[in-house]
Structure formats: C-alpha cells, structure tokens
Amino acid sequence: MRFDAEHLRGRALTRLETLVMAESPSGEPELLQIVNADLEQAYRALGARISRDTGPHGDHLICEWPGDGAPSDGHILLIGHSDTVLPVGTTAERPFRLHDDKDTVTGPGVYDMKGSLVAIELAFALLREHGLAPRRPVRLVVVNDEEIGSPDGRRVIAAQAEGAVAALGFEPPLPGGALKTGRRGVARVRIDVRGVEAHAGLDASLGTSAIDELIDQIAAVRGAVPAPPAAEFNIGTISGGTRANVVAGAARAELGLRFATPVAEAAVLGALDALAPVRAGAEVTVTRLSYRPAWERDPANPLAAHLASLAAELGLDLATGTSGGAGDTNLTGALGIPTVDGLGPDGAGAHSMAERASINSLLARAALLAAYLTTPEESA
Predict the structure, then answer these.
(1) Residue 258, phi then psi, degrees to nearest 5
(2) Are 221 and 255 in contact (CB under 8 A)?
(3) Where are the beta strands (DSSP E) in the chain?
(4) Model's pTM, two decimal places?
(5) How would you classify the pairing of strands 164-169 and 339-340?
(6) 349 exposure class (CB count in 10 Å sphere: 0-12, 13-18, 19+)
(7) What is the share, in percent, of the chain residues with pLDDT greater than 90?
(8) Tens digit of pLDDT for each residue in 264-293?
(9) S-S: 369 plus which of 123, 139, 239, 355, CB 3.0-4.6 Å?
C-alpha cells in the first residue's frame, strides 16, 4: 500500500517542536525522563505496550506493537535514542524554528534524532488511520546514552535484538538521504602505565619511566594497526610525570581506534590485548572505555533493496553507502541481523548549532516506514 503523510505536516511540526524544546543531553536523567514520558504517552496512544529498562543514566524505553504474524516468526527491531549532544540552555539561544521555505527546521536535536522519533510516531499514526497492523511484531528501543557510546544501551539493544528478523536504525542518513548499510567499528581505549619514580640525575638507574614505557606501548599498537582505510589510529590525550628532574612514575594515554572490517578489528583489539611491559618495574593496564564492532557493508543487502523498492513507489530514489562513524546498528549488523541505518529525515549539522532537518523528508520517512511495516518482502 502506498502511504502519504502530507496531511500530518502540522502534527509533525507540533510534535517536533515539543521534543526539541524538551532538552535532553546525555547524562541528564531528569530531563531524559521528561522526553521519555512524552514519547511513552504518544506511542501508547498508537497501540504500543511500553516497558522501561533502568540504567545508570535513567530509563531506556521499549515499545512493542503486535503484528499480524505470530511472535515466534520473529520481530522487526527499530533503534533510536532520546539523548542529544548540545548542553542545557541551547534552546534559549537557538529555539525550534520553521524557516521561510516551510521545509527547513532548526534546533538542538532536530536532526539527531528527535525528527526520527516523530517520523516513527507518524508511521504508526498512518497505520492506525488505515486500520492496519504491522505484518510482524515491532519493537522500538529508545536508549538514553547513544551519544556517549551506549555504554548501557548496548545491553538493552542486544537483549531486544534476540529473535529479530530485521533491524532499522533511525540515525540521520548519509548526505542526500542515502541509507547506511555498513559502519566502521570504533573503540576508545585508555592505557595506564605505572613506573618507578627516582631522581633523574642522581638515581635514574633506580627508576622506571612510565612515559618511556607508554611511548613504546603506543608504538606497538600503532605498528599493529592496519593502514587506512582498513583502520585508523588517533592519540586523543596523553599525560604523565611530575617534573623534568623526576623519572615519571605514572603516564596515561587515551586512544581512538576505528576499523572497517572484522579482520582489521581483530588485529587492532588483539594488539591491545597482547600488550605487556617491556621494562622491569613497569605495569601496564589497558581499559576499553567504549566499543562498537565493525559492521561490514554487504552491497547486496536485501533489506536495503526492499526499502529502495518501496521508496521508488513513493517517488524517492534511495542510495546506500557506508558510514565513517559508529552507532547502535553496529551491534545488530555485526550479529548478522539484516540491518539498515540512516532512516531519519535528511538534514545536516548534527551536534552543532547549525543543526537542521527537512520536514518534507521526515514525512517521506514516515510513509516509507509505514509501507515497510505492512509490505512483505517477497512482494517487493
């Protein structure tokens, strides 16, 4: 069935303004709770059964809609997040605004990803208008910590992904509205080194320099990292020592690592796991601060092909590509679940004061999701 969401434009603008003006930066559980309560009310009114999974930064939201198919046949997983990046008070300087072209909307989180949460809402509104149910059960997971790497949200997504036949991520698309059918993996790692302090002039031989040890450890990791584009290596921060006349007793570095394939990922993480002191008296500790596995692109992704076919019926041309950044769909893609991301509305400027999105695109994404939820893949 071909859906048209144009008549929901006013509702889309009202809902988007409400969500954008309810600021919800990561790590602000009281503010995230306000957004969750709003989403819960909206999705419940559209037939969802709501539950919550509590984490360190508040509740993650899980919304479930029954489908025409038996639950044992597997469910469709929708993945979103309620947290944003810009700090509290940003809306005072840059409130939600519809621009003169009647399409562009601006405000913190309008693109990443409150516009997506509205598009999902509108898709289910379209189904209700037509008296339709999804062809399979649907679960929507809205985590509250995606912008800081989903340290707890990852657990929730993994649990809800069990038994899923498809995973749709609602992060912003690639430029021009293209879908994401692969993402580089990413790891943020800290290396801590303990050495032995000593006077650098009188008793240097009695000391063990933590800084020297750290430099050698970083060099070892760098040497094991495959060359770009397979992987990338960045020393984000480095610190250590106390004074120039003291052999450094402690040093620390934080590394940012990206990998395009599981093979490159194994090489990078294996090198980190294998680190061992090269100096007597040194202690080396490696802590993985955050991690998302590589989701290697499949050019023949059947889920993307199905969505592209449905989009063509709506007059849209959907391209696909690989994202240089990581997201929650890294997990489902790496698990082998058919996955597509970038189903949020088109726009630009994520994480910046220039953030903007297209209402026309938001309405089109809602219509596309409604079509996907009701159209068996074999008929595409």
Answers:
(1) -130, 145
(2) yes
(3) 49-55, 58-65, 75-81, 97-98, 104-106, 138-143, 164-169, 179-183, 185-194, 198-199, 231-240, 246-247, 250-259, 283-292, 320-323, 339-340, 347-348, 356-358
(4) 0.91
(5) parallel
(6) middle
(7) 95
(8) 999 999 999 999 999 999 999 999 999 999
(9) 123
